[in-house]
Specification:
The complex is a heterotrimer of chains A (164), B (294) and C (791).
Chain A lengths: L5 E8 L2 E8 L4 H8 L18 E4 L2 E4 L12 E3 L13 H8 L9 H13 L6 H7 L11 H15 L4
Parallel strand pairs in A: 1-5
Antiparallel strand pairs in A: 1-2, 3-4, 3-5
Chain B lengths: L6 E3 L4 H11 L3 E4 L5 H6 L7 E4 L9 E3 L3 E5 L4 H6 L1 H6 L2 H6 L5 H4 L4 H7 L5 H9 L1 E7 L2 E6 H4 E3 L2 E2 L6 E8 L5 E9 L6 E11 L5 E9 L6 E4 L13 H11 L10 H22 L4 H5 L1
Parallel strand pairs in B: 1-3, 2-3
Antiparallel strand pairs in B: 4-5, 5-10, 6-7, 6-10, 8-9, 11-12, 12-13, 13-14
Helix pairs in contact in B: 10-11
Chain C lengths: L14 H5 L14 E7 L5 E7 L1 H4 L4 E5 L34 E2 L5 E7 L2 H8 L3 E6 L5 H7 L12 E9 L2 H7 L2 E9 L11 E7 L4 E6 L4 H12 L6 E4 L16 H13 L3 E4 L2 H7 L6 E9 L5 E11 L9 H9 L8 E9 L14 H19 L3 H8 L8 E6 L5 E4 L4 H12 L4 H10 L3 E13 L5 E7 L5 E5 L8 H13 L6 E5 L16 H28 L6 E4 L2 E4 L2 E7 H7 L9 H4 L24 E6 L5 E13 L6 E11 L6 H21 L29 E6 L21 H13 L5 E2 L3 H12 L1
Parallel strand pairs in C: 1-12, 8-29, 10-11, 14-15, 20-21, 27-28
Antiparallel strand pairs in C: 1-5, 2-4, 2-6, 3-5, 7-15, 8-13, 9-10, 9-12, 13-14, 16-17, 18-26, 19-20, 19-25, 22-23, 23-24, 26-27
Helix pairs in contact in C: 6-7, 9-10, 10-11, 10-19, 14-15, 15-16, 18-19
The complex binds flavin-adenine dinucleotide and FE2/S2 (inorganic) cluster (FES) (2 copies).
Chain lengths: 164, 294, 791
């Protein structure tokens, strides 16, 4: 078996442009984590079920373990690192997760943060039931989800500001 | 869990894609949303030598509503079809089925046409196509062919697609006026493939009495099972005789046991969920907008 | 005044890092390392005839392929039997790479090292192993029947038979007014943390030292094991636990084959080597738990009081027994819960099967024990027509009977003595919280709407904080920062926050000046590990004792500097003050400077501690006798025995009369884990435990085929609950302090999971009127039970 051919692909991650040469089979999750060293995106199953690897592509959450990096030519990708505030501190969703104790081991957390960040764009004031529904495609083995539901609602408050 | 190596092709037009697929034959596979193909590759249950990535062909990313129905292009994501207001108006069953397909995150990437080609007997959209009627457009270097819904699903994970062919679009027929539809399923967890699911389509007369009633069932046969249940409509035309319904269904379905459910339970669910879906579909059936206006 | 942090809802100091993507889990490290994949057995039981690697060798990017033949020295010996017990007469452990036989699907046979995991898997696909399949023993029934044997030299597939007895149970049962017999069983599940295992090893050939990062629950013990296996002096090996994405028991087992193989390969290759377990590997080669079958005989009177209880059970321990008999021993002792059983006899057989090994998963044998006892309580109530809560109340150990000695030996080899608890008060809180007494009205209303509902409850007692010991180290840096370390590890329980809260209070320093490190043998070498809900009790106590020691030292030094008496000093907000004289203060950083007399002034602070900086008594040595330089201390906590937490759960379920779908409407928890350090963290532990309890009751099971193939080795088919499956959890606390430790705390980590199956079974039985004797239960199984009743 000879060395694998590399394929060129250009996209942006958290606003920064990248021009990569990777094997065609490189999963986006691996490209982010190991080629770009953005290790905030986690891998919990590599078959699309757990959601730990969720990133935003052109604003919409997708599983980064279920796409090849080369397929994302021209895309704008946002990872959990891109959900920070302008100063590099905690963004609204991240802040809410801390306030509500919505994480324990933190392994699932990046997938929740990205999912919730996208969700809040068009759901400024979710009810508890809506918040629960919104996070129902992500697995967490630690928290029992209750505080994550609270954090979704709290993040909406922080992001959209009560009355602001 | 990493895929085997493959050669990657990124055509920009349908022509280019079809040329590639033609040249590759059995060696080539279409990569659409990848939501079924990539996990299979990561588990090394599939190892295609070449992937033809159709995600960069703008002409495939379409949802068009016509008098005949809704035409969904090959790269239209489940989420886009689900949210398309005109598509919902024309055939509400599309959205009713789609909200049961996995989780929103999967629907953001997975394609409706890909789901049809993949032909999972537990998938919702094949049942929707089978029930509404319609067709899939297949293109190859030899030209185009249109396969009717009834002929498209051949067996579990097997559609009428041949090597070298690209499914460019699928058309879902618009149901007749005064029709109602519903999709009811039971899954172990919210978002899982259903233990059993039923799509129902009911058409009524001006007085609301049922004139035709059909269902399509998933996870109880090798392909979506379409059953005409008109014979189970009660004399009054407003309700269904559950026993007759069960008889009709039993004659058509052939459920199997797996680790999640016995065959007996699936059969029972088919009865219960079909009754629920029909009732709900009947509730949605009613006068057309024009009739209401007059 | 510094406000007291102990008991407060302090936000976690871990979180800013973790939520922003700055956590460092195992696979986030070692980007330069070679990566490993394994050829694993596709057979449950087979002899290895031949291994042919020739095709694999051609793959570009391959670094090395190893089989058992390559393992030298002690690497070739079986892995250690970690917890030997005299009763474990037939303990067996596996080799790091299978020698001539495989005993479960997933057992590692060949190790492949390559430039990355993709290439390593390519090679794995090209290695040919020839097997001669042998008959597989799968499930407890097959193991008991023993028509085939897992290990030819283990008769009856029995690793151990153990009996404990207090009083003459059989005689007491025979003499009792009523006798009931029940068969009860629980299926296999698993810890299933979101992050699998993983190991990264770096060998420094110049320094002849090995640095291992591993996603473990015990770094100190991995260090000893790696040194022993590799034949290295222990002081040449350090083991660091990075951020760990959950453990729940599976990562307390060690050394996993990979934990010795990866360091071994790193030394051989002189290059960093990493293995990151993928999900499929985790399913087929990391431990499972729970599968047990139980037969209960119970004798009781007209009031429902127990006279005698006899339990026989069969425990499926999988293919090997590296973790000894801990799980069945816990079941056999903890099934007693808050009750006085009268005379008690328990006998278990621990059985080999050709499946993945069984070691503790959160709860560790308690969920099974609780299920057995609580189903028995319900059966007694049902037989006598009594209220289920009332029967429990009548059998409770009363607060005035504490400490209560069951006359048995617990998992730590110590007597089973409950230290404290107020069970009637807990039950009272629970029945109020869930509205136990008003439920019939609710049931009637639901029924009128065509809905079917049921209520159930379950109680448990949990031995927590088992020994032998943990330690802590606290040092005040010269800038006033306080660094704390403890040897045990963290998998998300908020230990850094919790331990900082304790130190902040004990030492009188602001919370944000405290840095806590766990599970790094470079920082602290003596520890046991994180399991059995022991961190708050063990490390919490150890760190508190240490902080007290450091405080005393700080006061001694400050007393000299401030020319005051120690008794007049206090530490507030990081400053030592003379009580009542506001001006006289010295900050702890300065005290730290003074604690370390110096010759060299390498910075301004140090200058103050040099020989000529301060006038000193020429006749006393700079470091006083009995003192050591530095404002630091180390101390250990070693309790006489475990402390016992308790709790009670009540559940309301709705079952669909047509589809047999099961929905949890309400889930109420009353929980007593002694004094609470951080209620927010404790509630989080309860939530997580309950979710796992719900999973174990309604969704999760390891589904083995008769040939020993695991049929659902993916998250698609092993159904861990999403948010949509977990109910809102209502919690009420009781705080009965433990008399056994300086903080009064008891463990909280496992509690939430224990009564899940018992309480949910109770509620389903109540809704359906069908006895529920085995868990988990799916809609299909409930449908089946209904069909069998109606014929
Ligand atoms: C966690 C998870 C849960 C899911 N749950 C459900 C569910 O509940 N119900 C459900 O229906 N689905 C479910 N899916 C599958 C999902 O709907 C997929 O998107 C769908 O089955 C396939 O669409 P795709 O675009 O991703 O196809 P791909 O994965 O790209 O392709 C699937 C197959 O179809 C072929 N193919 C795709 N498009 C074309 C084309 N245009 N022409 C020719 N061949 C083509 C490919 O070559 C491949 O063989 C789930 C997926 C995941 C990961
Ligand atoms: S790692 Fe992608 S969904 Fe689990
Ligand atoms: S916080 Fe550990 S998996 Fe969610």
């Amino acid at each position: 078996m000879t060395t694998e051919a590399l394929v060129r692909v250009a996209f942006t991650v958290n606003g920064a442009p990248y021009d990569l040469e990777v094997p065609a089979r490189r999963l986006l999750s691996d490209a982010l984590r190991h080629d770009l060293r953005l290790t905030g995106t986690h891998v919990g199953c590599e078959h699309g079920v757990c959601g730990a690897c969720t990133v935003l592509v052109d604003g919409a959450p997708i599983r980064s373990c279920l796409v090849f990096a080369v397929s994302l030519e021209g895309a704008a990708i946002t990872t959990v690192e891109g959900c920070r505030n302008a100063e590099g501190g905690m963004g609204p969703v991240q802040q809410a997760f801390q306030e509500c104790h919505a994480l324990q081991c933190g392994f699932c957390t990046p997938g929740f943060i990205t999912t919730v960040t996208a969700y809040l764009e068009d759901h400024p004031a979710p009810t508890a039931a809506e918040a629960r529904e919104a996070i129902s495609g992500n697995l967490c083995r630690c928290t029992g989800y209750q505080n994550i539901v609270a954090a979704v609602q709290r993040a909406a408050e922080i992001k959209w500001g009560e009355g602001a | 869990m990493k895929p085997s190596p493959f050669s990657y092709h990124r055509p920009r037009t349908v022509e280019e894609a079809v040329e590639l697929l033609g040249a590759l034959g059995e060696e080539g596979k279409v990569l659409a949303g990848g939501q079924s193909l990539v996990p299979l590759m990561s588990m090394r249950l599939a190892a295609p030598a070449h992937l033809v990535d159709v995600n960069h062909i703008p002409e495939l990313d379409t949802v068009a509503v016509t008098a005949a129905g809704v035409r969904v292009g090959a790269t239209a994501r489940h989420a886009r079809v689900e949210k398309d207001a005109a598509a919902y108006d024309a055939a509400p069953l599309l959205r009713q089925g789609l909200v049961n397909v996995a989780h929103p995150t999967i629907r953001n990437r997975g394609t409706t046409v890909g789901s049809l080609v993949h032909a999972d007997p537990s998938a919702e959209m094949p049942a929707v196509l089978a029930l509404l009627g319609g067709s899939v457009e297949l293109r190859s270097t030899a030209g185009s062919r249109e396969v009717a819904a009834a002929d498209f699903f051949v067996g579990p994970m097997e559609s009428a697609l041949r090597p070298g062919e690209l499914a460019v679009a699928a058309t879902f027929h618009r149901p007749p006026p005064r029709s109602g539809s519903a999709f009811v399923e039971l899954a172990r967890r919210h978002g899982d493939y259903a233990l059993c699911g039923v799509a129902a389509l009911v058409t009524t007369d001006h007085d609301g009495a049922v004139t035709t009633a059909r269902v399509a069932l998933i996870s109880v046969g090798p392909v979506p099972v379409v059953v005409d249940v008109g014979a189970a409509v009660h004399g009054t035309g407003t309700a269904f005789d559950t026993e007759r319904l069960a008889g009709l269904l039993d004659a058509a379905i052939d459920p199997e046991a797996d680790i999640h459910a016995t065959a007996e339970y699936r059969r029972h669910l088919a009865h219960v969920l079909a009754a629920r879906a029909l009732t709900e579909a009947h509730e949605h059936a009613g006068p057309t907008r024009d009739e209401r206006a007059s | 005044m510094t406000t007291k942090l102990f008991g407060a809802r302090i936000r976690r100091s871990e979180d800013p890092r973790l939520v922003t993507g700055n956590g460092r889990y195992l696979d986030d490290l070692g980007h330069d390392a070679y990566e490993v994949a394994f050829v694993r057995s596709p057979h449950a039981h087979a002899r290895i005839l031949d291994i042919d690697v020739s095709e694999g060798v051609e793959v570009d990017g391959l670094v090395a392929i190893y089989t058992y033949q390559d393992l030298d020295g002690r690497m070739g010996e079986p892995l250690p039997l970690l917890i030997p017990h005299p009763t474990l007469t037939h303990g067996r452990t596996q080799h790091a790479l299978a020698r001539d036989e495989v005993n479960y699907v997933g057992e590692a046979v060949v190790m492949v090292v390559a430039v990355d995991r993709y290439v390593a898997e390519d090679v794995v696909g090209r290695v040919r192993v020839d097997y001669e399949p042998l008959p597989a023993v799968v499930g407890i029934d097959a193991a008991r029947a023993a028509a085939d044997l897992v290990h030819p030299d283990v008769p009856g597939n029995a690793a151990a038979v153990m009996v404990q007895e207090s009083g003459d149970a059989e005689a007491a049962i025979d003499a009792a007014p009523h006798v009931l017999e029940l068969d009860l069983s629980i299926e296999r599940s698993a810890s299933m943390p979101m992050e699998g295992k993983g190991v990264l090893a770096r060998w420094d050939s110049d320094d002849e030292s090995l640095l291992v990062h591993t996603s473990t629950q015990t770094s100190t013990s991995v260090r000893q094991a790696v040194a022993a296996k590799l034949g290295l002096p222990v002081d040449r090996v350090e083991v660091v636990t990075p951020d760990v994405g959950g453990g729940f028991g599976v990562k307390i087992v060690h050394p996993w084959p990979e934990e010795v193989l990866v360091p071994w390969a790193a030394v051989r290759l002189g290059h960093p080597v990493k293995w990151t377990e993928d999900r499929r590997e985790h399913f087929v080669s990391s431990a499972h738990e729970r599968a047990q079958q139980h037969h209960v005989r119970v004798g009781y009177d007209d009031e429902g009081r127990l006279h005698g209880l006899s339990v026989r059970f069969w425990h499926d321990n999988g293919a090997y027994t590296p973790y000894g008999l801990i799980v069945p021993i816990i079941t056999s002792t903890q099934l007693l819960g808050p009750y006085k059983p009268g005379a008690y006899r328990v006998e278990f057989t621990s059985l080999y099967t050709n499946t993945v090994i069984v070691t503790p998963y959160r709860g560790a044998g308690r969920p099974q024990g609780c299920f057995v006892m609580e189903r028995t309580m319900d059966a007694i109530a049902d037989a006598l027509g009594l209220d289920r809560a009332e029967v429990r109340l009548r059998n409770f150990i009363r607060p005035d009977e504490m400490p209560y000695d069951h006359g048995l030996i617990f998992q730590d080899g110590r007597p089973l003595v409950y230290d404290s608890g107020d069970f009637p008060a807990s039950l009272d809180k629970l029945t109020k919280l869930v509205g136990w007494d008003d439920f019939e009205a609710y049931r009637a209303q639901a029924r009128s709407e065509g809905r079917r509902v049921g209520i159930g409850l379950a109680c448990y007692v949990e031995g927590t904080g088992v020994g032998p010991y943990e330690g802590g180290h606290v040092r005040v840096e010269t800038d006033g920062t306080v660094v704390v370390s403890t040897g045990l590890t963290t998998q998300g329980q908020g230990h850094q926050t919790m331990l900082a809260q304790i130190v902040a209070d004990e030492l009188g320093v602001p919370f944000d000046r405290i840095r806590v490190t766990t599970g790094d043998t470079r920082r602290f070498k003596y520890a046991v590990g994180t399991f059995a809900s022991r961190t708050a009790v063990m490390s919490g106590s150890a760190v508190a004792l240490t902080a007290r020691k450091v405080r005393e030292k700080a006061l001694r030094i400050a007393a000299q500097a401030l020319e005051a008496s120690v008794d007049d000093l206090d530490i507030v907000d990081g400053h030592v003050e003379v009580k009542g004289s506001p001006g006289a203060t010295i900050d702890l950083g300065a005290v730290a400077v003074l604690s370390n007399p110096l010759r060299y002034a390498f910075d301004e602070a140090a200058a103050r501690a040099t020989q000529f900086a301060t006038p000193a008594d020429p006749d006393t040595p700079p470091v006083a006798p009995g003192e050591a330089p530095g404002l630091e201390g180390t101390d250990f906590y070693s309790p006489p025995r475990s402390t016992f937490a308790n709790g009670m759960h009540a559940v309301v379920v709705e079952t669909d009369p047509d589809t047999a779908d099961i929905k949890i409407l309400r889930y109420c928890v009353v929980h007593d884990c002694g004094t609470i350090i951080n209620p927010m963290i404790v509630e989080g532990q309860v939530h997580g435990g309950v979710a796992q309890g719900v999973g174990g009751a309604l969704y999760e099971r390891m589904e083995y085929g008769p040939d020993g193939q695991l049929l659902n080795a993916s998250f698609m088919d092993f159904l861990m609950p999403y948010a949509s499956e977990v109910p809102e959890i209502e919690i009420d606390h009781l705080e009965t302090p433990s008399p056994l430790n300086p903080l009064g705390v008891k463990g909280a980590g496992e509690a939430g999971v224990i009564p899940g199956s018992a309480a949910i079974a109770s509620a389903i039985e109540d809704a359906e009127g069908i006895p529920i004797r085995s868990m988990p239960i799916s809609p299909s199984e409930l449908f089946d039970l209904r069909s069998r009743r109606s014929v």
